[in-house]
């Protein structure tokens, strides 16, 4: 079964085995499935490996351990030096 969008009906429907008319291998990794929506309008679906989501080639994964370890030490050092305190100094209190 395929989920198809019929432009004439302006809705998505399921395309079952009975509604499939033609399956054609266009190029490597691209398949065309032609059929009819439940109301009889022609619909075409492009599917196959070319349409499956793949990993982003620009993403190189998490930073290597060699970079994260010194950064964690530096972050801990800054946190120790500039610890945020929520208490007001004595000069701000009204007695």
UniProtKB/TrEMBL annotation:
Domain of life from the UniProt record: Bacteria
Name by which UniProt lists this protein: Uncharacterized protein
């Amino acid at each position: 079964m395929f989920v198809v969008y019929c432009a004439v009906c302006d809705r998505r429907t399921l395309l079952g085995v009975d509604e499939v008319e033609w399956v054609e291998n266009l190029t490597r990794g691209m398949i065309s499935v032609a059929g009819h929506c439940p109301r009889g309008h022609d619909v075409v679906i492009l599917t196959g490996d070319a349409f499956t989501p793949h990993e982003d080639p620009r993403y190189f994964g998490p930073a290597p351990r060699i970079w994260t370890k010194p950064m964690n030490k530096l972050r801990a050092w800054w946190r120790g030096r500039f610890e945020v305190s929520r208490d007001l100094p004595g000069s701000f209190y009204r007695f």
